[in-house]
Amino acid sequence: MGAMTSTKDRILYASAELFRRKGYTGTGLKEVTTQAQAPFGSLYHHFPGGKEQLGEDVIRVSGAFFLQLFVFIADEAPDVVTAVQDFFRGAGETLVATDYEDACPIAVIALEVASTNETLRVATADVFTSWLDEAATRFVAAGIPAARARELALSFLSALEGAFILCRALRSTEPMAAAGAAAASEVRAALTTVA
Amino acid sequence: MGAMTSTKDRILYASAELFRRKGYTGTGLKEVTTQAQAPFGSLYHHFPGGKEQLGEDVIRVSGAFFLQLFVFIADEAPDVVTAVQDFFRGAGETLVATDYEDACPIAVIALEVASTNETLRVATADVFTSWLDEAATRFVAAGIPAARARELALSFLSALEGAFILCRALRSTEPMAAAGAAAASEVRAALTTVA
DNA sequence: ACTCCACTAGATAGATCGCTCTAGCGGGAA
DNA sequence: TTCCCGCTAGAGCGATCTATCTAGTGGAGT
């Protein structure tokens, strides 16, 4: 049967894509199993906690993957300013390549469940925190004081997430470019102040 | 019967609140009429286009209301930098006052429908555009070149929207404060460059 | 008084929701 | 072989979804 991913992975991957595109409440489990080419019963075998467990797993797995992507880009870049620029640029390219469907893997879920499902809300908070910590650590390594680094990480991620919303609604990467430029110059300013 | 709002307005108001809190797909029409204390049949009398028309009306009405709020704050503030600061501060206060339920009136819908419902996507794009135009106009009036003003408006709104996501997920206003400070200093820098 | 129509009121249809259930398949251990 | 069990497979349950339907109400216009 050639290269075969496990049924569980296919369900997870299909869920991640559908949740990202149509939202958590907007995605049906029947649809998930169809897209994953998996029997419906298998879903509840691998995810006995049902839709909520599936949602939580998607949030945490996608979050970890996105974190690794950030780490990879940051490691490749010569400095943090370039890293920030590369990240925004890459986000814009992904948006265009996927016809504005693939943006932040968890933003839609985060907004949907923030006031309705505490388990999933905590999962999104954990993921956001892991991203913020990673970014702040990078800024500190570049010589920026911890408190300022935390601030930079928060405004960097806010700008990125907000730009995703605007880009998808406007079907344009202009917001991503503007937000990226602003974030980069903010980091640059923080660096020159230190040096 | 005292002060009585019309049935249509009650349905619109209840929908806006529920969509904002639980999302578009996550809100049922039965729930809307219950919360609005309106008979179910009245919903389809006032909104013959069903849920989609209700969604579009909510987006456009909420969008216009939010625009007026921005205009009001900007008119009250002594300068644009203060206006930006006031807006972020006000957003943070609203989040706390509503237990992190009331943020951007259309962000959740915008993300949910961006890839699934073109009518609603266009409505959110129109609203975002109206906000961006208003902000850019204010920046131009303060002496910033048009192209730069547009960039500032984009990064300002991106920061605000993204901060809403992070604040609701983390249940903290820290992202709003960081994003607000960054946006304010960016506008300040744009002003000093001109002057 | 009579008509008319905007509006209220809610039962109900048909589809889909998340979830549970039983049955059967297939490969490794005894 | 025989047993076992992780996994596949999908029918079906009760609830809920959006939307439609008919019936009734109340007040303005003539």
Explained architecture:
The structure is a homodimer of 195-residue chains. Chain A has helices at 7-22, 29-35, 40-46, 50-76, 80-97, 107-113, 118-141, 146-170, 174-194. The first copy, chain A, has 9 helices and no strands. In chain A, 78% of the residues lie in helices and 0% in strands. With 195 residues, the first copy, chain A, is mainly α. At the A-B interface, helix 6, helix 7, helix 8 and helix 9 of A face helix 6, helix 7, helix 8 and helix 9 of B. The first copy, chain A, binds a DNA duplex (30 and 30 nucleotides) through helix 3.
Descriptive key words:
DNA-binding; 78% helix; homodimer; mainly alpha; 195 residues; Tetracycline Repressor, domain 2
